[in-house]
């Protein structure tokens, strides 16, 4: 049984883990899991049973084709793709499906060597390596060998690499099947097909938030082949170009590449009189004009070369770029709103220069276009009337004109490319189609474009499932296995919901023709028609949204602008003006569009009885039907492109993102189809090698042997395995589900354990026998060897003794003669040596006497020399060192000690010279008072450890003094030389401190005088401003009115720019007071009889009324919102309603309570006590006594000044580290936090009532906000923002 399981993980999606044990809890059994990295996790029984098993071998081995795995699951598929990606193996086969993970970097795997390798693999019996070239090679080989058309379906989300994969497919086909193309032009058709990519990418690709080169259209490229499997031509069909991008882009995205490429061509820019991209409304909305890593000028040059290769005439190219320039100028047209003589609103073009330029580029009549863009034509019985448009309608009409022109230009490019590269289907009728189409899309806001895209993916998924299902059935038929119970997920009901008669697209077309049709009515019809449909439901958040349950998940569609996006038409006046264009290309574009299918009657000219122009949805459905017919007539090959990470960074694999894309690609539906039959498959050889231990039978033939093994396994399973759970095919063994496979593993483990026990018993028996008889056999062997050895030794000893005796006698005679001769020679040598020794001893005695005298003299001289050097080094005088070194040069030649000491003296001499030079530099720096020179010499002194020298100490003190004086001067300048009066007020305290420091450090008197005058001016402004801020913070109407009056008087003398933000906050406060008065029920609420002692709700004064509720109301409502269950809460509400007397009164009380908790937290019953505790420590006086704001801040003035002086004494280096700090830096963080909560609306106010309500209501959906309350919300945001950033610090004093 496998010890590893795949468990869910947030970061890696699925990770392998071992089961470390389990236990029974109150909630049921749980299992303790340990991952391979050592982390622990506990799973309940239900989650554990759902975990897929995996073997260690499957984790360790990287498979090129995952169909060869023993088991299939999301975890093992993701693990294999991740492991291969980390080794730069970005391609993986899952059966015949190729998974391509975008590496976001260039890899050297697309050379001619790879092309030849995959070409040979496709032709031979060798299994192909996973590669995009392998898919192209298989398609081309099957086309030639089977004489059947092929198709390659490439899908994936934006940024997954679909466009690049399509290029590689075409590159392979052009390289292998395009070299012998019979074509008279200098450029063969294969190269021309490749050259179509730069043109279509320039006009159809753009930068999005997910991809820098995202295709915003789908395309079907059908390559036609000759009977010899050579490319004859190609036909391109485009689908659903994203027209809205021409006039609008979200932040960090761009319009289509061609606009920026055109502007970056200086010659073309000058010819068309174009400006920078930032000057055009259609290009500057998103704030993104440049794409990193993309050179628009070079891309433009490549596009022009491609147009020339595809035989675009110069006139055609000029007309195309003129049309694009006209679109840019159309986007800059703006409107002025005015009233006509009858009092109706109408518009006129404000900047007619752009209109003139647009008409010039497009060859249009300025008067006709001006009128068509400002009026709508309506036909009545009395005749044709012109209805003026408003600004919004006129802008929409302008944008519709720009989008239609661009769409027609793009369609023209596709037709023009086809004219060059398409030469008919050919004699063989064979083709390879390459489909590059958008993947499943799910955004925060999904519109008509996403519906069409997901509809196309539903179609392709249905086709994909059918192909995979047929492949499984073919495999079972080849293996000779009956498996009729296999089914696959049929998404035909979802397709019918969208495309069938009476479906979503049909009802959208109907709404276009009914009178007064609208998006809202369209959605209502969907709700009423499909309310009980399995694949449809109503959105719970917005009734104007609807939800479709696609194969990849539910998608919520926003119905806004559905009808406008589906309507593929332009106003008749504009169409007529464009049909009369003097530019040939523009005129032909609209004439072709007019004569296109569905536009005209049978006569070929427009008439009232002709068919209406088909909608976008109808066209798209028709194109999809045609595409599916083409796909059904081919043998398909699937490539699923996967985006490895959202950062577009190399070597990064985001597992959850990749898993989601694999699900959207339908791979796991293919796995589900496989699991619905026999999920586990084993080759005969592998099965026999692994499970032969489970049977004692011996049968010839792998199939029969496998059958015998399975029969024994079934017999040993005690009914756990039945005959329906397994089957033996011609080459594989099939296991249906996980349960019998686990039982098989258990039986195998038991069999292995049994065989091991038997082998161990035989082994132990042999060891025992060996140990019993080994000692006896060893003793007999040793005895025989000892007797034999004794005989051999005795014979050898006798022979050796005889030989030694004879040798000894001969040697004795020879030695005797030799000894006599040596004695004679030795006597003669002794005599001669005695004579030589006598002569030598006399000479040696004389030489030794001379040497002793010489060495004694030299040693005395060396000692004197060493003593002289030591004295010079100790003295460290230049002259003494120089003389000593000069005097000992001779002695250094024969005394190593003297030579070393002389080198040391030279080093000391150099050090003395350097110290003298450094002292001179320090004195020069002190004299000049240069900061840079002082820093430099002090650094040198520190390196030479001279910081204790008097010169260095003085220089350090002088440097610190200069730096402090410069810092103080710079600080004064930053605080005084500014034109922002409010900023000066915020920094008033710091300015006073900076003046004192500057005077103490000796800053220039003119700088100090300027700062003192500035400070005197600020002192007159601070009290007024602080009083206005305190009035806002205390929410005192009286203080607000007084503050506004004082500011008005002050502004008469000093101007109106003073404290504008404070004035706005005070006015917002007065508007909130006024809004509170409008709330009903506040004054008429009375407590019940039990609380008759409580005071009723009353106003503060005659000017306005507070909406305060008595404490019993707050306490009762707080009990309601703190109720643990709905039953208790309903009971408390009914009790309070009975006490108040009516449901209407209860509703008003809850409304007032909500207002107090969310917006007027200072108006609850304990407001005065809270303010007193916050601003009046000790409760020395009440708020009513604080008529002026300065009373609050002046109470602790003396204490605060004393604390500041104490802090200055404790900070020794305060002047050096001082910097500008905002006057708001000392604000109370807790107060700022409360103000932020009131601003964002995520928590209640400062009272306990608001906090409790918000915490318990976190997961509840808010009720719709009335219009008046929305206005007040905005006032509260303005007030809270001011309150948070202009609060007076608690320790402030003037």
UniProtKB/TrEMBL annotation:
It holds the Pfam family Myosin_head. Keywords: Actin-binding, ATP-binding, Motor protein, Myosin, Nucleotide-binding. Residues 624-646 are annotated as: Actin-binding. Residues 1204-1217 have a biased composition (Basic and acidic residues). Residues 1242-1251 have a biased composition (Gly residues). Residues 596-615, 789-835, 1204-1269 are annotated as: Disordered. ATP binds at residues 156-163. Residues 61-749 form the Myosin motor domain. Signal peptide: none annotated. InterPro entries: Kinesin_motor_dom_sf (IPR036961), Myosin_head_motor_dom-like (IPR001609), P-loop_NTPase (IPR027417). Belongs to the TRAFAC class myosin-kinesin ATPase superfamily. Myosin family. This is Myosin motor domain-containing protein.
């Amino acid at each position: 049984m496998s010890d590893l399981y795949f468990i869910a993980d947030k970061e890696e999606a699925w990770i392998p883990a071992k089961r470390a044990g389990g236990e029974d809890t109150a909630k049921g059994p749980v299992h303790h899991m340990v991952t391979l990295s050592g982390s622990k996790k506990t799973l309940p029984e239900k989650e554990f049973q759902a975990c897929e098993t995996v073997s260690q071998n499957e984790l360790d081995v990287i498979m090129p084709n995952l169909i060869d795995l023993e088991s299939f699951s999301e975890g093992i598929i993701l693990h294999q793709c991740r492991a291969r990606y980390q080794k730069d193996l970005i391609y993986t086969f899952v059966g015949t499906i190729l998974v391509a993970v975008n590496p976001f970097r260039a890899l050297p795997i697309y050379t001619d060597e790879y092309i030849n390798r995959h070409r040979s693999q496709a032709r031979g019996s060798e299994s192909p390596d996973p590669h995009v070239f392998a898919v192209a090679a298989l398609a081309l080989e099957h086309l030639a060998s089977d004489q059947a058309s092929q198709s390659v379906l490439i899908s994936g989300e934006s940024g997954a690499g679909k466009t690049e994969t399509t290029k590689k497919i075409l590159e392979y086909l052009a390289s292998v099947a395009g070299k012998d193309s019979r074509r008279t032009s200098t450029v063969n058709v294969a190269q021309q097909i490749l050259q179509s990519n730069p043109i279509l990418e320039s006009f159809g690709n753009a930068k999005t938030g997910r991809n820098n080169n995202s295709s915003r259209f789908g395309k079907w490229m059908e390559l036609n082949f000759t009977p010899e499997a050579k490319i004859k031509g190609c036909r391109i069909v485009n689908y659903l170009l994203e027209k809205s991008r021409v006039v609008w882009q979200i932040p960090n995205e761009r319009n289509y590449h061609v606009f920026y490429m055109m502007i970056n061509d200086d010659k073309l820019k000058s010819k068309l009189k174009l400006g920078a991209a930032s000057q055009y409304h259609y290009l500057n909305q998103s704030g993104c004009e440049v794409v990193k890593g993309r050179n628009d000028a070079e891309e433009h040059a490549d596009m022009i070369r491609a147009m020339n290769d595809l035989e675009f005439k110069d006139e055609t190219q000029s007309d195309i770029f003129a049309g694009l320039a006209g679109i840019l100028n159309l986007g800059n047209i703006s409107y002025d709103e005015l009233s006509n003589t009858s009092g109706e609103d109408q518009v006129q073009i404000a900047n007619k220069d752009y209109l003139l330029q647009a008409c010039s580029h497009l060859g249009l009549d300025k008067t006709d276009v001006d009128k068509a863009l400002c009026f709508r034509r309506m036909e009545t019985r009395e005749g044709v009337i012109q209805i003026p448009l408003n600004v919004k309608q006129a802008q929409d009409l302008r944008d519709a004109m720009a989008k239609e022109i661009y769409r027609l230009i793009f369609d023209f490019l596709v037709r023009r490319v086809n004219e060059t590269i398409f030469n008919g289907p050919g004699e063989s009728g064979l083709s390879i189609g390459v489909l590059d189409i958008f993947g499943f899309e799910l955004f925060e806001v999904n519109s008509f474009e996403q519906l069409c895209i997901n509809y196309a993916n539903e179609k392709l998924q249905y086709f994909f499932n059918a192909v995979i299902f047929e492949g499984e059935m073919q495999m079972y038929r080849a293996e000779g296995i009956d498996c009729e119970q296999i089914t696959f997920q049929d998404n035909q009901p979802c397709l019918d919901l969208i495309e069938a008669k009476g479906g979503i697209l049909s009802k959208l077309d109907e709404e276009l023709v009914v009178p007064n049709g609208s998006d809202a009515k369209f959605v209502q019809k969907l709700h009423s028609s499909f309310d009980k449909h399995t694949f449809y439901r109503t959105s719970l958040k917005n009734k104007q949204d609807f939800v479709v349950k696609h194969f990849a998940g539910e998608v919520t569609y926003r119905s806004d602008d559905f009808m406008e996006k589906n309507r593929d038409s332009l106003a008749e006046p504009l169409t007529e003006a464009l049909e009369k264009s003097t530019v040939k290309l523009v005129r032909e574009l609209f004439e072709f569009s007019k004569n296109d299918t569905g536009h005209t009657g049978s006569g070929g000219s427009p008439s009232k009885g002709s068919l209406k122009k088909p909608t976008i949805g109808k066209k798209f459905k028709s194109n999809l039907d045609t595409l599916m017919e083409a796909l059904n007539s081919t043998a398909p090959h699937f490539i699923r492109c996967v985006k490895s990470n959202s950062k577009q960074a190399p070597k990064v694999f985001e597992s959850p993102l990749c898993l989601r894309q694999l699900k959207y690609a339908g791979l796991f539906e293919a796995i589900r189809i496989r699991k619905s039959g026999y999920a586990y498959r084993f080759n005969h050889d592998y099965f026999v090698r692994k499970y032969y231990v489970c049977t004692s039978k011996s049968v010839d033939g792998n199939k029969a042997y496998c059958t015998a093994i399975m029969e024994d396994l079934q017999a040993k399973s005690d009914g756990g395995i039945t005959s329906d759970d397994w089957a033996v095919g011609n080459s594989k063994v099939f296991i249906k589900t996980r349960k019998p496979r686990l039982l098989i593993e258990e039986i195998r483990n038991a069999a292995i354990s049994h065989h091991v026990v038997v082998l161990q018993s035989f082994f132990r028996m042999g060891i025992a026998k060996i140990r019993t008889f080994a000692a006896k056999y060893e003793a007999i062997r040793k005895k025989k060897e000892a007797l034999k050895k004794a005989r051999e030794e005795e014979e050898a000893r006798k022979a050796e003794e005889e030989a030694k005796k004879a040798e000894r006698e001969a040697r004795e005679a020879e030695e005797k003669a030799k000894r006599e001769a040596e004695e004679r020679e030795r006597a003669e040598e002794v005599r001669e040596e005695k004579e030589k020794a006598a002569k030598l001893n006399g000479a040696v005695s004389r030489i030794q006497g001379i040497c002793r005298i010489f060495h004694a003299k030299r040693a005395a001289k060396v000692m004197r020399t060493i003593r002289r050097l030591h004295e010079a080094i100790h003295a460290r005088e230049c002259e003494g060192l120089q003389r000593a070194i000069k005097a000992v040069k001779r002695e250094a030649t024969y005394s190593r000690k003297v030579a070393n000491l002389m080198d040391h003296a030279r080093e000391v001499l150099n050090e003395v010279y350097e110290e003298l030079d450094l002292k001179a530099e320090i004195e020069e720096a002190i004299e000049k008072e240069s900061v840079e020179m002082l820093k430099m010499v002090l650094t040198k002194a520190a390196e030479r450890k001279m910081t204790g020298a008097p010169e260095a100490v003085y220089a350090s003190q002088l440097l610190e003094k200069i730096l402090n004086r410069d810092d103080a001067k710079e600080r004064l300048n930053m605080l005084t030389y500014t034109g922002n009066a409010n900023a000066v007020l915020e920094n008033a305290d710091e300015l006073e401190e900076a003046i004192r420091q500057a005077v103490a450090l000796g800053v220039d008197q003119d700088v100090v005088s300027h700062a003192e005058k500035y400070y005197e001016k600020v002192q007159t402004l601070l009290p007024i401003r602080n009083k206005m801020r305190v009035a806002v913070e205390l929410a005192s109407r009286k203080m607000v009115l007084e503050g506004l009056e004082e500011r008005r008087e002050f502004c008469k003398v000093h101007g109106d720019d003073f404290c504008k933000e404070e004035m706005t906050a005070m006015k917002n406060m007065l508007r909130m007071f006024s809004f509170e008065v409008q709330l009903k029920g506040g004054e008429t609420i009375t407590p019940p009889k039990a609380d008759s002692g409580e005071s009723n709700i009353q106003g503060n004064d005659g000017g306005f009324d507070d909406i305060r509720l008595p404490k019993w109301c707050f306490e009762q409502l707080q009990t309601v919102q703190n109720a643990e269950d709905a039953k208790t809460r309903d009971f408390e509400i009914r009790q309070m309603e009975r006490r108040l007397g009516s449901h209407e009164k209860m509703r008003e009380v809850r409304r007032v309570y909500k207002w107090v908790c969310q917006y007027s937290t200072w108006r609850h019953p304990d407001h005065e006590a809270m303010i007193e505790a916050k601003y009046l420590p000790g409760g020395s006086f009440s708020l009513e006594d604080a008529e002026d704001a300065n009373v609050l801040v002046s109470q602790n003035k003396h204490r605060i000044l004393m604390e500041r002086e104490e802090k200055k004494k404790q900070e020794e280096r305060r002047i050096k580290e001082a910097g500008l700090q905002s006057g708001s830096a000392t604000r109370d963080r807790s107060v700022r936090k409360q103000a932020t909560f009131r601003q964002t609306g995520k928590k209640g106010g400062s009272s306990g009532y608001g906090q409790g309500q918000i915490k318990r209501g976190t997961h509840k959906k808010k009720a719709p906000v009335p219009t008046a309350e929305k206005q007040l919300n905005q006032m509260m945001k303005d007030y809270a923002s001011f309150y948070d950033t202009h609060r007076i610090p608690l320790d402030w004093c003037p």
